[in-house]
Structure formats: structure tokens, C-alpha cells
Amino acid sequence: AMEKMSRVTTALGGSALTGRTMHCHLDAPANAISVCRDAAQVVVAGRSIFKIYAIEDEQFVEKLNLRVGRKPSLNLSCADVVWHQMDENLLATAATNGVVVTWNLGRPSRNKQDQLFTEHKRTVNKVCFHPTEAHVLLSGSQDGFMKCFDLRRKDSVSTFSGEAPEAGRADGEVLWVCHRPPDVFPESTKKVGLEVSTPPSRPPRLGRRQACDSSPQSLQGLPPWLLSLLEPLTFSPHGPPPAGQSESVRDVQFSIRDYFTFASTFENGNVQLWDIRRPDRCERMFTAHNGPVFCCDWHPEDRGWLATGGRDKMVKVWDMTTHRAKEVHCVQTIASVARVKWRPECRHHLATCSMMVDHNIYVWDVRRPFVPAAMFEEHRDVTTGIAWRHPHDPSFLLSGSKDSTLCQHLFRDASQPVERANPEGLCYGLFGDLAFAAKESLVATESGRKPYAGDRRHPIFFKRKLDPAEPFVGLASSALSVFEIEPGSGSMSWFVDTAERYALAGRPLAELCDHNAKVARELGRNQVAQTWTMLRIIYCSPGLASATSLNHSVGKGSSCGVPLMNSFNLKDMAPGLGSETRLDRSKGDTRSDTVLLDSSATLITNEDNEETEGSDVPADYLLGDVEGEEEELYLLDPEHAHPEEPEYVLPQEAFPLRHEIVDTPPGPEHLQDKADSPHVSGSEADAASLAPVDSSFSLISIPHALYDTRLPPDFFSALVCDMLRFYAEQGDVQMAVSVLIVLGERVRKDIDEQTQEHWYASYIDLLQRFCLWNVSNQVVKLSTSRAISCLNQASTTLHVNCSHCKRPMSSRGWVCDRCHRCASMCAVCHHVVKGLFVWCQGCSHGGHLQHIMKWLEGSSHCPAGCGHLCEYS
Amino acid sequence: MFVARHIAADHKDLIHDVSFDFHGRRMATCSSDQSVKVWDKSESGDWHCTASWKTHSGSVWRVTWAHPEFGQVLASCSFDRTAAVWEEIVGESNDKLRGQSHWVKRTTLVDSRTSVTDVKFAPKHMGLMLATCSADGIVRIYEAPDVMNLSQWSLQHEISCKLSCSCISWNPSSSRAHSPMIAVGSDDSSPNAMAKVQIFEYSENTRKYAKAETLMTVTDPVHDIAFAPNLGRSFHILAVATKDVRIFTLKPVRKELTSSGGPTKFEIHIVAQFDNHNSQVWRVSWNITGTVLASSGDDGCVRLWKANYMDNWKCTGILKGNGSPVNGNSQQGNSNPSLGSNIPNLQNSLNGSSSGRKHS
User: Fold this and answer.
1) With bands split at pLDDT 50, 70 and 90, how would you rate the model's confidence at B168?
2) CA A123 to chain centre
3) Chain A residues within 8 A of B78 when measuring between CB atoms
4) pLDDT for A361
5) With contact defined as beta carbons under 8 Å apart, do B332 and B356 qualify?
6) pLDDT digit string (tens) for B54-81?
7) B residues 12..41 contacting A (CB < 8 A)
8) Which of residues 159-178 of B touch A (CB under 8 A)?
9) FRET label pair with A222: which of A185, B84, B171, B321, CA 20 to 30 Å apart?
């Protein structure tokens, strides 16, 4: 026999297999396939098909139809088929009616049927030839028996019963088994002191426990996460199975190396090991899976390794050489495992397919148990049979499917989920932190840097081939780190500070603007500070002061065209501006100021353009063109914008803002710099020294008489609106909303409701992210957008019990319907609580927040004397 | 500057996704080892794993948090063709004592017949909705009609993208002017050069999602896609991770100008394209103001991108995965990304060196 085996090997050595990925249509769904030892023919068997195909280079060619005769016999309804690996003429099929049939292709007649064994009572799930003994056939059936046939005799030689003596197991005893693979156990397992057998040979047994009722009382003390993983093994909680009725056999496989040994798998999750000479009892039995074990396969080289696959979606590799079967690998597939076949010449590879849901065939490296190494996706229905074409060629896989096709898969055409898998995760945190997870090989060394060579997965030449000889690189793992941004260096803390410190209402506009400008400045946000200052200037010139003291009343006066008093009391304004700019300068940080100047200048210019239509203002006074914000920065003409023009006399329509520009103190040189280059190159020190702060004072002190014209605040609203939009587009919705609230009616009408609502909603969302609930609430309250302000009125329901009668209160205030007493009495001072009322949810007693807090310092009992140990969160 | 804090994740296989929650205090990771871990930030800033459990029977590609208004809720999606919704259960004192929390599966979404490659909760204002995409090229949108019942999800829409999908992103804008919109990226690597980013928009009239735009210029496999937080902008910013990093702006063309009823038309501009990763780009992620984009690629680096006032996007920082600073080709390698500037554009009008100096 050994001579024959070696001949096969050498045959391959002489002429390697050739072929391509291909498929052919069958007449009917296949249930099983088996390959002839010459690797040139494959037999396909099913409920209504039984054919032999030749595997040619380009196609499958039907060679022989074994279903002959007019009447289709149930004997031909095949559940399984196997081709003898020593005799090219010998096949066996397992019929769904329980018959085992052998076929002799050497028979001269059309009917090749050889022998018929009608010993099983139910479907035969599996037939298996002895690998070296020509006449020995084994069958396993749904009826719970395995039978060994000698093909030279008419009857079975021996019968093995799956019903093994289950020694030492009492009625009603439940074995609790954790089905989670041991290697996924958290470290904490050991701390809890559980028995997790190491090395992880099998589901860790937690011990047998009496379980009269099914409640896992005996498991008390185990952590819940573990309890959730535990399942009672179902073999005996309801007593032993009735006598004579054994568990169904799903698979039988002769050991390749041990002449007398075969393994069988059962629907109850057990695997048995038998000596073919000892039908009375199995050599060994163990629980391999939770639920049916559908298949098993002996490793072609490792005599001890048996792979089993079950409905529990796992493939387990057992080392059978040790005293107790030891689980050495556990692969988690995505569907129940119907077939498992070790890949030739690849010690750690095996192929699986499923009988439900999943139509694909996977090849796994058992050392990387979570991600399939390769995947074949050709079939459109479940794959029912898989077979490696030649026992020493790892690249050709054949498969039959319920979709009535027979396929040959070439390994190089397989898709490789490993390669497709994303090796990195990245997420920005709230404050600017970054969480980053990356495959360790990418971040570990420079070798991680690989040049871009087209898509990694295509074209095929670039694809890393799954070379069987390639050493396993070990489990892939990722490094996880969080890059924390240092406070102050660009974290989002400015946002929080700003939100908390801004004043949005309740004070005169000028104060609000000043306050907010101060806040912004202290946080180093000079541009924002300048903006607030500008707003103050625009809207709070003294003449307007009375009208502007509260938010919502401004529009009237101006729109009625009431002549404004001379509006610029610049002396009032100057100190603030002056000091501010001085402050900025002293920090040597004038750049954003400058930029602000520019943008505000543009705004003004815009306005000029509109308002001076037809007026006699020389175009030179325009500070720039108005096409785009970026442009303006450079169009600013230092000559004409020169702020220190002493005899500057405005035409009748005054444009005070033009002078306000001057409030911000950059000197001409500075402007020159700006105009020259977008990348401001002038040194800050220069700018500071060349632009004396005082100059702004002199400028601002323009005779009041110049301004005794009307200056409707509306005048600016378009600009201010533009500014708000600008801030919003830049991602600073905080500024947009804050200004919107502070200015109130002054600008609100000029921005469409939808945009306002959008800004409010965005800002509120941001505030809530930072848990700034109070600010968020204030913004909601101050908003005039109906969609926003109703956020506060969304129903919050409090269910309250009367503190006297303990019954639920109706919704009518704080007076109890039943006992007609006020429920919100303070249990400490016995007065009715107005304002903050806290109460214990256990006894319904409570009172003033302060009183209760004080009380609880001394005692944890309820101050009402009800004896309850009150709990407050 | 950044300080790298390494976390012993103890996943048994590759980590495919990390995700911060709404408040940035919790983090979830998912891995090919079929598990999801939840990490909570302690007072001291350390991240502690407070839950780790097997979520799927295949690689878990993505994990994402729902808005906390809906509870502590996670969604995950997997190679096992399912997406799942998980909720944290409070009050298990046994767990609490050990600093562990307990997560229960509320639903399994089994409609896909292939690997579910991405899952994203819709912006909160749309209610409790969830989108998944799968390798068979279908985007599915689910809704939980009763936000209190996380076990009931109904499949609302199935959008066929024709190409194997790898990533999705909801447009986060809450503006009434912006219809619900979802961008889908494909990592289909078949040689035909089809556009790999499609944008679908919900139409009130037809109550369906219809294709609004296709980014014709993106023809290489796309691995990640992300809309920037909108924060009141009138336009949208979309980052795409493909063989390079790309940033697009989508300005809605006013409705009146287009034929009414149809999907919104957009003016689409590519505003940045960087191949500095010199390899596949796997992930893109925006900061919460949508002003800084982080990207990571096969070079194992995270790069930060930010626009200046000219809408010129520049690299403002490089972070090596192992925490070591990169002294590479970019002079800005060590410069501070200065995320906090209120008006990044204007601040960036200053050249990079000065902003670096300011903070160092």
C-alpha cells in the first residue's frame, strides 16, 4: 500500500497540475464531490445527480453519468460520495435513505453499481474508505451508528454505536462550559480565580455543579460577564437519552497515519476516537463544540492533529496525541462549518465552507484565527463539497454547490481579506487629541514606509502571493496611542473659556462688547477682540447710547430717521482702544490685528461703495476693492489709506468708520509690509516702533462737527452680517452666534432665519459636546429663532411622589390631590421650598438644597424622621 | 505640541477603527479579533478599558457612537455581514465595583449578504438613524422609530451604488437648507476607472435618496471619507482618503436656479490634494470645528492639514505612530498645528515659522 501512495507523490513531481479558475453547470445541486487519485477526474453527487467530470485545462468535461435506469432510485439520492484513493475504479456513495452503495467503474455494463448495503435505518451522512486498505469502507449515519464494511463480504463487519457509556455523570447534573475561546479571556480572569485550563486545550471547565433547577445558583459569585458566556452542556440535564437511540453521526474519518483509528463526530458536540477492532466502546470521547460537529479532517502530515468544524461557527484543531485531546487552535468563522479540509503542503492552512447563509469558501491559517487568508466567492448558493485536487498540490481547490455548479479555484485568484483589511484607525477628539491605531509593522520601523506602487491589491502582479513556504510572520497586532494636545498650544480650551466668560445679555451693549473684547484679548484672540471693539464703535457711539442700552430697541430710533447727535465722542473710546493696542504691541503680536484691520477696512470700503454712490468722494479714499476677502488684504493702498492725513475733511456724509480704522494703530510701514507680501515679513518690533500708539488718538480726535450728520446704525448691518458669515465659514460659529445675540435686532433682520437657526443649532451642539450646559441653555434662551428657543420647552417630565402620602402627584403643581398639603415642604426648616428643591427618590422627602446638604453632613438618615437612609446623587 | 500616550490595547489582531464619543471622554476600538473595547478617560487622563466583549463572528471593521441623547449606544459592523447596535447597561453593581461596564446587543442588522464595511449614525437632528454600507455595493439606512426601543430598527432605504462600498459619511449639517446627504466611497479595485465617490441626497418629494453628485476625479480605491463638521457653513467640506488625501468643497447651487424637485446641484472644487503619505491613505478625520484634517497612511504617520486664509491647505504637523517626532522633508514637521486659533485662516496668513515660534 505504501508503494502506491508514493507513486502518487512522484506522479505529481513529474507533471505539475495545470488549469485555471473555471466552473461548469451541473443539472442539479451537488451534495458532495470527490476527486480521483489521478487528479484528473472529479465525481459530483447529489439528490438527483451523480456524474464524473474530467478536469481539463480549460474546462470540465462530463465523462460519465452514473445515474442509469429509467426509475430514479432513492438509492441514488446521494448525501455523500467518496472516490477510493488507491483504486481508480472504486467509489462509494451514501444515500439519503440509509443505503451505502459501492460502484465499480471497471464494470463493462452501463450500470456500474457494485454492492448495496442496507443496514442503516436513516440517512447516511458520510462514507469513508480506509486510506491504505483497499476493501475497508466506513459509514456514519443519522441513526447514530457507524458501520465498517469489508467490500469482500455482503454485510458489515462491525457496528459502532455513538451512544457511548457516559461514566460518572449523574442525572440532572449540568456541566457549565464557557464557549469563548480561552485566548480571548481578559487578564482579569486569573484575578477572579477561575479555573481556566492552560494551555487552552478545550473549553475551560468550571467544574460540575448540581443544578436541580436550571438556575445557576451554584455559579453565584462568578462575574456576570463570565456567566453570560457560560452555557449548560445539554447532554444530560433531562436525563440520559433513551436507550437505543444514539446521537446522529455527522462525519467519520479514518486516521491517515494510525491504521486502526478513526474519528467520528456527533450532533451533540462530541467527537469520538475509535479503534476499528474494538466496536464495544470508543477509545476516547470529548466535547469539541457547542452544538453539532458537522465535519472533521485529519491532518495529512501531523498524525495527531484533527480539525473539527461545528455549527458554533468554529474550527478547532485538536492534538490527539496527548492523554486528553488538546485544543491547539481555534478559528472563528462567520457561519456554521460544514466541511473542513487541510490544505496540502501547508501545515497550518485549512479550507472551510458553510452549509448555511455563507456561500464562500475560506482558507484559514489557523495561527491567525480571525481573518481568513483567502476567500473564494464564486458560488451563488451554499457550497456543499470541497476537495483539494491533489494531495500534494496546494493551489487547486474543487468545489460543488447547491447552485448547481462545479468549480475549480486557483489559489492565486482568491481574494485576500487580510490584504484588504484596513490597518489603521484614526479619530479626532474634542480638544484636538488624536487617537491613532496602526498596524505595528507600519509604525515600528522605517521599513513600514513603502513606496506607493499602484493599489496594493491590483493589479495582480503586485499582490503578495500566499506562498505556502513563506514563514508565518506572527499575529498581526496594532499599536494604539492617543496624541494629547498640550493645553494652550492649540487645544480647544479657548472655546470653553470663551463660552464661559462671554457676556451675552443683561448689560448695555457697550459693556457687553467691551467685556467680550477683553475676554477675547485675554485668551490671545486678538482678531476677535478687535471685532468686538469695532462693534462697540459701530453701535455704541454716545449719541446712540441711550437707545442701545438694551438689545432690542435700537432699530426704531434710527429707522425713524431721528437725527443723530454728533456721534463720536472719541475721547470716550480712545483709552480703551489705546490701551488695548498697546497691550497687543507690547506682546509683539500685531499680526492678527493687522489682518483685522484689513478685513474691517474692506468691510468699510464695501459700505463706502454703496453709500457714496453719486457722491463726490474721490475713489482714492476707497481702501481697496471689494471683490474678495483675500484680495483686499493686498489691495489696501498704504498711500491712500494713510491714517494720519491731518486735514482730512469728510464730505457731507460722514463715514466715521473710515476713521475707526485708524483706531487700530498700524503705521504706514506696517501696511506697506502687508501690501508687499501675503507672508508678512516685516518684523514685529519694527511695526511696533513705527506706529506710535498716540497717532491713533490724534486721528480720532476729529472735530465733532464733522459728525453731526445722521448715522443710521443700519448703515453697517450688511457689513456686520458679512462678518458674521465670515466667522461662520471659518468654523468659528461661536463668534457668529455671540455677536448675533449681543447685537440682537440690529442685525437679526438682515440674516435669514434659516441661517441663524443653523448657527444656533451648530453652536449649541458644540457647547453640549463640551458639557457647557449652562451656556447652552443661555444661548437657547436668548435665541429668537423659534426652532431653537423651543428646545428649552421640550417636555421634561418629573414624576414626583407626595412627601406625605407617598402617592404619585398629579400634574397640578405641588399640592397633593389626596392629602391637600404642599408636597414641597423642606424637611429641615418646614417651610415651603421655592426655587431649588432636592428630594430623596427613596422616601420622597426633601427640602432646600442648602438645608439638605447641611443635614447630610451630620446624618445620613432622612431629616423628616422617616428612618430612610437617604441617597442623593 | 502633542504628547503621545500609548495604550496597551491588547487586541489579538489588527485594530481597524477608533472612535471618540460625543464628549470625547470615551473611546471605542474594534479589531479583527471580533471584539470591541470601550475605554474611559480617568481624571488623570489615563484610558482604562471598561468593557471588552466579542461583538461579531468576523473582523469588526468599524465602531461608532450614537449621540448620547439616545443613551450610551455603539454600533459596529463586521466581515460577518452584520451590523449590530449595543447599549451599555447601568446598575450592574457587580461590574461597577470592578470598574467594568456591561454592554448588551440590542439588534443585529442582517440584511447584507456581504461584509458590512462601515456603519454611521445619522446626525442627531434626523432622529435615531443608522447607515451601513457593504461590499455588495448597497447602502442601507435604518431608523429606530422609537428612540427608547433600540431593538426595533426598520430598513428605510436601500441605495445601490454599483460598486463595492468601503466607507460612508453623513453630512452633519443641521441646516434646514441642507437636505440629508450621505457620501459613499468605494474601494472597488477592478481596473475600470469608475468614479469612487458618490453623494446621495434625500428628497422630500420622492422620499428617497437620489444621487446628487459623483466625484469624477476620484478613480482610485477610496478607503475613508469624511464630511467636516458643518458649524454653520453654507457649504460642505469633504475629505477623501484614497492613494492621496483630497479635500473637496461642495457649494450648493441655489435651489431657485436649478429645476425644482431634483437633487441639489453643487459646485464642487478640489481644494487640496496631498500625496505626502507616499502610499495608500487609510483614514481621514476632522477636528470638531472642521478646520484641521488628520490623515493616516501606509507610512504609519498622521499628518495634519489646515487651510490658510487663501484656502491654501498646508501640512501643519506630522505625528509618527510610535510617538516619535518626524524630522523629515517638511520643515513644519515640528511646528504646532495651532488648532485653537479662532480664525485659523487668518492666523495662517502668517507664515508657518512665526506661528510655530509663538507657541513654543
Assistant:
1) very high
2) 45
3) 334
4) 95
5) yes
6) 999 999 999 999 999 999 999 999 999 9
7) 12-20, 22-24, 27, 29-35
8) 173-177
9) B84
Could you give the CA distance from residue A697 to residue A87 in angstroms, rounded to a whole number?
A: 110
At residue A127, φ and ψ (nearest 5 deg) are -125, 150
Residue B344 near residue A731, CB atoms below 8 Å: yes
Torsion A544-A546-A550-A554 (CA) sign: negative
Closest CA to A654 of A708, A597, A604: A708
Query: Phi/psi class of residue A201: alpha, beta or left (left: φ > 0; alpha: ψ in -120 to 50)?
Result: alpha
Q: Do A483 and B298 touch (CB under 8 A)?
A: no
User: Residue A232: how many CB atoms within 10 A of its CB?
Assistant: 16
Instruction: Please state the length of chain B.
Output: 360
Average pLDDT over residues B226-230: 94
DSSP string over A774-829: HHHHHHHHH---HHHHGGGGS------B-TTT-PBP-SSTTB-TTT-SBS-B-TTT
Find the closest chain B residue to A336 by CA distance.
Answer: B57
Q: Look at residue A156 in the predicted model and tell me its pLDDT.
A: 85
What is the number of H-type helices and E-type strands within chain A? 24, 36
Of the candidates B186, B178, B193, which has an alpha carbon nearest to the alpha carbon of residue B159? Answer: B186
Q: Model pTM?
A: 0.73
Residue for grid cell 468545489: A399
pLDDT digits (tens, 9 = 90+) for A704-731: 444 444 456 667 778 888 889 899 888 8
**Residue A396 in contact with residue A388, Cβ under 8 Å?**
yes
Regarding beta strands A270-275 and B313-320, do their DSSP bridges make them parallel or antiparallel, or are they unpaired? unpaired
Rg (alpha carbons) of chain A, rounded to whole number: 43
In this predicted structure, what is the pLDDT of residue A767?
Answer: 93
Q: Which domains does chain A have, with CATH numbers?
A: 108-163+245-418 (2.130.10.10), 422-464+472-483 (no CATH), 491-538+709-796 (no CATH), 797-872 (no CATH)
CA-to-CA dists, residue B169 to B120, B139, B185, B197, angstroms: 7, 11, 9, 11
> Could you tell me which residues are beta bridge partners of residue A330?
A316
- In three-state secondary structure terms, A75 is helix
Rg of chain B (C-alpha set)? 20
- Test A427 with B19 for CB contact under 8 angstroms: yes
Instruction: Give the domains, in start order, of chain B with CATH numbers.
Output: 161-327 (2.130.10.10)
- How many angstroms separate the first and last alpha carbons of chain A? 80
CA atoms within 13 A on the CB side of A111: 11
Using an 8 Å Cβ cutoff, are B286 and B293 in contact? yes
Q: How far is B185 from chain A (nearest CA, A)?
A: 14
Q: What is the ipTM of this complex?
A: 0.89
Query: Which residue ranges of chain A lie beneath pLDDT 70?
Result: 1-15, 164-245, 445-475, 488-490, 541-714, 792-798, 810-813, 873
Residue of A nearest to B57 (CA): A334
Give me B277's grid cell. 503619505
Written as nine digits, the cell of B106 is: 440590542
Q: List the grid coordinates of A37.
A: 487519485
CA A436 – CA B283 distance, rounded (Å): 10
CB contact under 8 A, A475 and B13: yes
**A741 φ, ψ to 5°?**
-70, -45
